[in-house]
Amino acid sequence: MAHYTGRPRFEWDEDGRIMTLLNRFAFVDDAQWVWSVPTMAQVDGASIPKFAWSILGSPFVGRYRKASVVHDWYCDIRTRGWKATHRMFYEAMRTSKVSGAKARIMYAAVYYAGPRWDVAADYDAQLAEVVAAETYSLEQPKLAVEQIERADVTLWQRRKTDPAAFLAMCDDFAKSCSSIEDVETMIEDHMGATE
Question: What is the DSSP string of the chain?
Fold first, then answer.
C-alpha cells in the first residue's frame, strides 16, 4: 500500500519562491519503490506548469503539497523516467487524499506540459551520483545537497502549449477519464502527439 515516510518540515527562502526540506522525507508507491527526498533538497514547484496554477492553485498549497515536493525533486535529478515520475505524482496525490478528479487534472497538466527527459542521457549525473546510494533507502542520512552545482541540461517540453485548450478540457479530464491512461489518450488524441 502506498504511503509516505516521515513528516516533511520546510523553510522558505528569502524570495518566498524556493522551499528547502529540513528533514528526510519519502513516498513509497504501490510497487514499493521508494521515492526519497534528501534533507536540504530545494524545490520550487516548477514541475507543475504555471498556467495550471490558476485553476489548481500553487504547488505548495493544499493536499498535494507532499506529492509536489517529491515530484519536483525527481524532475530535478531525473534518475527515473519522466513517465514513471509523473505517474508517481498522481499516485502520491491520491495517497494524500486529493480527489480523483483533481488528481487527474493535475496529472494531465504535467503529462501535457511538464518536463520530460531521456533517463539514460539527460539526468543530472553529478546530483544523482551524490544521492543515489541513499536516495532509495529509508535510513538516509543528511546530505549537503545545497553544495552541488546542477548541470545545465535542456529538458524536453512541448514547444507550444495551449493553456486555453487545456483549461477547456479540464472538465473532461476530471469526469470522462477514469484512469491516467485515459488522460494520456485524451491528450494525445486532442492536443497532439507527446514527442
Answer: --EEES---EEE-TTSS-EEE-S-EEEE-TT--EEEE-TT-EE-STTS-GGGHHHH--TTSSTTHHHHHHHHHHHHH--S-HHHHHHHHHHHHHHTT--HHHHHHHHHHHHHHS-B--TTTSS-HHHHHHHHHHHT-TTPPP--GGGPPPP--PPB--SS--HHHHHHHHHHHHHT-SSHHHHHHHHHHHH----
Whole-prediction pTM value?
A: 0.77
Q: Which residues pair with 11 in a beta bridge?
A: 20
| pLDDT value of position 157 | 55
pLDDT, position 112: 85
Q: Taking Cα atoms as reference points, which of 84, 83, 54, 58 lies closest to residue 69?
A: 58
Query: What Cα–Cα distance (Å) separates residue 37 from each residue in 30, 146, 162?
Result: 18, 13, 32
Are the CB atoms for 95 and 70 separated by under 8 Å? no
pLDDT, one tens digit per residue, over 106-165 is 899 888 888 888 765 445 555 554 444 444 444 433 433 333 344 444 455 555 667 788
> What values do phi and psi take at 54, rounded to 5?
-65, -30
Q: How far apart are CA 80 and CA 73, in angstroms?
A: 11
Task: For residues 170 and 105, give the distance between their C-alpha atoms in angstroms, rounded to a whole number.
Answer: 6
Q: CA-CA distance, 92 to 86, in Å (whole number)?
A: 10
What cell was used for 95? 495517497
